[in-house]
User: What shape does this take?
Amino acid sequence: MPGSAFPPPSPDSPPETPRSGITRRGFLKGAGITAASTALLEGVQTLRADAESEATPGVTEFGPGADSVRLHVNGAEHVLDIEPRTTLADALRLHLGLTGSKIVCDRGVCSGCTVWLDKIPVNSCMTLAIDAIGHHITTIEGLSSESEPHPVQAAFVRHDAMQCGYCTPGMVMSCAALLERNPHPTEHDIRHAVSGNLCRCGTYPKVFAATLDAAGSRRA
Assistant: This one.
């Protein structure tokens, strides 16, 4: 080839060996990635071992799939297969068929889903079902006996203290919980007890009257 500094290859010369696909830069880059991956894996394994060693004795871990849990509801034991994310409201309504507690806002601002945990009113839409394990849960269905309604329920009927009915179960549970801890409430006490219960129909005056009536019936 004119102007070339190298002579043309001889016909008897062996064929050129093709260059390997691994370059020095590629080798170093691959080695770096491998080292980083190994360090990351070792770090994850160390964190997992530390977490296992720091696990609190006697504490049961749940998830991520469904687990079998035991809930004490309205005086009876129930075994449910639920995911850890399941709220108490969903466990009661979807798994046990106790639909008296209403899911209205699903944000803990209306208290239509109020139930009792050991006679303390809580918003079941904001309570995980697994957090209710070991507690006595009471719903609106378990508030009365089969033979007669709870005094608060009967008073709500007498005073027409419900309209659309969405707030009624939660309102009854809050008022009944008040009478459990204070058999002789004032209207101010009742206002405070239902301050978290939202009634869009505005039946608060009748709720107050019904609860005072129920307190009088209990005293009688």
